[in-house]
Design goal:
Blueprint: H1 2-21, H2 24-45, H3 48-54, H4 60-92, H5 97-113, H6 115-123, H7 127-150, H8 156-177, H9 191-221, H10 224-257, H11 263-290, H12 292-299, H13 305-313, H14 315-334, H15 337-358, H16 362-376, H17 378-386, H18 393-420, H19 429-451, H20 456-469
Helix pairs in contact: 1-7, 1-10, 2-4, 2-5, 2-9, 2-10, 3-6, 3-9, 4-5, 5-8, 7-8, 9-10, 9-15, 10-11, 10-13, 10-14, 11-14, 11-18, 11-20, 12-13, 13-16, 14-15, 14-16, 14-17, 15-16, 18-19
Length: about 475
Amino acid sequence: MIGQGASVVLQFGSLAVLARLLTPEDFGLVGMAAVVIAFVAFFKDFGLTQATVQRKEIDAQNVSNLFWINLGLSAVIAFLLFALSPAIAAFYGKSELIKIIWVLAIGVLLEGAALQHRALMIRAMEFKKLVSIEVGSRFIGVVVAVTLANAGKGYWALVFMSLAGAFCHCLLFSISTGWLPSFPRNLSASRPYLKYGANLFGFNLLNFFSRNADNVIIGRFIGASGLGFYANAYKLLMFPVLQVNAPLSRVMLPSLSRLLQDDERFTAAYYASIKSILALTFPGLGLLLLCAPSVVHITLGPQWSESAVVFRLLAPAAFASALNMTTGWIFTSTGRTDRMLKWAIFAAPFTVLCMFLGVEYGIRGVAVAVSLSMASIRIPYLIYACKGTPIMFREVLKIISAVLVPTLLAVACSVAAFAVVSFEISEGWQRLLMQTVLYVGLFGILDTLINRRNGSIFSLITLKQWVVGK
């Protein structure tokens, strides 16, 4: 969590600086390429890193086999990106994308070479080393980006920020683990890992497609500027969710995988993790929903006011996303990635269809479509995930309601208070501070009145007690 906090500071800080040095067009161009890069980059992993983490026991030869598979897939992807870059540029109508994709393709190859090293570090729960590498790599990338942006290099600042981070990952993960892969052999012994990874890959691919189709659709039918407004609003909103989900996921997957034979401890760990995630994310999302104009004004600047509207329209999607990772833990820790794939085959087309219906009304229409589609399928997804496991859906729903109700009530009461009392304060730090103080006070009161000792603060204390006691 400390590492994620440092990442948040770097991300917000770099975004605040780069948004003032670069234009929405620059962000939109790199956003177009990033969607393509991130899409094909799924192939380099093929779900094999999580297969390494999930297994109770794994030998060095199997890890080596998976390393060469990951590296081979990364090399193929990099070559295809080089070859297809003219077609991708023609699709968007932006010739600049050709060279952008060439540079980003090198980063794909570098990241692929470090996948199994990173998986071994997560499996061993060496999070101090992991965090040091990731935060250090991000910092170097930010320094490179700001330097290039100051030199007037435009979108290349964003491109080389990504490449510098990938290079540092590859170098530092290899040095820190001290592990060298052997030549591949006895590949038949790796089939269970490939089966697990193939199902997980299929889910991630479909899920990624549905999550990023909005960027493709906006880039194709609305343009780079519209994509710049939309993409930055999405990034800002999802910050709290990603910063909490990422570190807990690294801990919970290896932990839950080793508790499969003990239903009582498995469910206790799962419920405690959900309570902690919601206690950390839902109240924060509520505050962002309330303060969206001020947050966008302070972070990006007054020229990004349209992002504030999109920011609020995407809020339901952010609340749904806070639960998405925790649901996936059930499937991945129990080895049932085949069920994840079956769900994605239904959910992904539904979400993309909603986006196409929304694009007729501009980026705001897409934002509404994303929120409605993600929120409407979240409960069925939870029911499906809990089926056949010791996890009780009713208990999960109870945990969700305990945090969601006071969060939404605090937002509504804060909006009403500002409507009743006329504050002649423009968007900025002063208004943000007033809204924050009012919201935090209201949430604390409502959370205590509604949940008493089962509130968000006590949920975090419970998680600490569970970790220490177990």
